[in-house]
Each structure stands twice: as structure tokens, then as C-alpha cells.
Amino acid sequence: MSPTDTDLSTPRNRRRKYPSRSARISDVRSKDRRRRSPRGRMSSFGYLILVIGVLGSVAPLYWMFVVGSNDTSAVSAFPPVFLPGGNFFENLATVNARVPFGGSILNSAIVAVSVAVLQMFFCSLAGYAFAKLRFRGRSGLLVAVVATMAIPAQLGIVPMYLIMTQLHWIDTLQALIVPGAVSAFGVFWMRQVVVGAIPDELIEAARVDGCGTFRTYWQIVLPNIRGSVAVFGLFAAMGAWNDFLWPLIILNSPENFTSQVAIQQLRTDYMGVDYSVVMTASVIATLPLLLLFIAAGKQLVAGIMEGAVKG
Known about the structure:
By secondary structure, the chain is mainly α. The chain is built from 16 helices and no strands. Helix 4 packs antiparallel against helix 16, helix 5 crosses helix 16 (275-310) and helix 6 (101-132) crosses helix 15. The longest helix has 36 residues, at 275-310. Mean pLDDT is 84; it is low at 1-5.
């Protein structure tokens, strides 16, 4: 370091060491301009690919609304119908006349919220146990839990149906909620989150202060991973909302139908398949998920990116 750099007696050296507010703002703006330089901008080809991707994603939803707001001839019309019609509410009345669709939406909401809450609790609790507790067979149990993800879910349908029969839970909503209360993927995800977010020193400090195992989880671990737990809960709710096969098998009464099963009943109605009615019901069943994504889309993307970076 030269002697002139430490000499603060001259105005030039003082300005160099302690820049003014305007100089600091100018420096920040110059850095921002460099960050926004053409080298960091997306090319026109990149924007074209993004636009094609967005249109490809939105097109099925728009086509569903177009058919749902016209009559069933819009499905096979040539030239194709591209504009919404005026029959949406008439088709919605037909949907409600054939199946109790409002009740099915409520049943789907009950199942989705219950499954999400239970999975957030049990999966984060199990993830904490696999990540921070020391007990015999921990690694083997974790491998066994992860290995269950390789088993097709269809193989468990018959045993689970027999269990539901023994419990007298056929045609009830708890037959949908209880089997979905915990998932192997959720346990593994939460275990990875706890390993990355909670240092061992924090757990040891809580134990020194007298916290038991569950109190450490509830007051130390859960508040520190609540963001990832919330994102996992959103994914669990969406999975439960869109579940079709198991509800179709276990539910018999129209008043217990979920929205996906109710839409299936519209397809198998004795009056034949009215695609405009089916699409109207599909639009209504999709709206809650769209609203959920609009409200929590940023958190969902952040959770996915967080998992990708940690992975």
C-alpha cells in the first residue's frame, strides 16, 4: 500500500476512501447497467421458445373453456371454434342436474386440505427423526422407505381395499384421507431439508436447555423449515385434489364423490357423453388449483429451485 493511500489529509484521498452518497449511488447504477448488459439479456430465440412453451401450456385450458362454453358440436366442428360461446352457465346447470357437483368440489377440498396438513406434520416429523436422531437401524429404515417409491401404487390397491373393508370405511372420505396421511417421497424430502437447514449444534443446544425430542421438533426444527414444509403441503394438496383411481374404487355414493369421480360419472351417464358438459365441469374443477397456483406460485417455484440447488 502506498503512503498516499493512507494519507487522509488531502481531499482526493478522503473522497477515495469515504465516497459521497451520490458517488455510491453512481457506482451502484453502473454495476446495475453492467448487469443488464446485452451479454446478460435473453436472445429473441429464447423469447420465442418461451412464448411457444406458454402458448402450448395455456392452449389446453383455453380449449377446455371454449368447448365448455359452447355445445358439444364444438368438439368436432370444422373449421375449429376458437372463441368462447354463451352456453357455459347452461352447461353448468346440466352438470349440477346430473351429479351433485358443488358437493364434490367441497369433498375434494376437505380431502386435499386434510391430506396436506397430515403430510406436512408426519413427513416433517419423520424427516426430522431420520435426519437428527440416532437410533439402531436408522439407515436401513430410510432405505426401506425410499425403496417403497419404486413399487407401483396399483399393487397396493387390493390390500388397501381389504383393509378399508375390515375398517368399514368403504364409501367414506376417511378412506381417502388416512392412507394419504404420509408419503415416502415426503419423508425423504423433509429429511433432506432438515439435514441442510438445521445444524447439529442447534439441536444439541436445545437439548442442553432441556427440550425433549418432540419439543425440539415443534419449537426449533419446524419454524426453521416452515417454508419448505408449506411448499410440500401445496404439492400434497394438488396431488390429493387430482387423485382419481383410488377415489373411483372406494366411493360409491354421489354425495361422497370427489370432483374427479363426479366428472367421470358425467362421461358414463346413460344420456351419452356430452363433451361440453364434461369440459364445463373440468373448468370448474381446475379453477381452485389455478387460484392456488396464482396465490402461491412464487413460493412453489422457490421451493422447487431450493430443492434443486440443495440436491
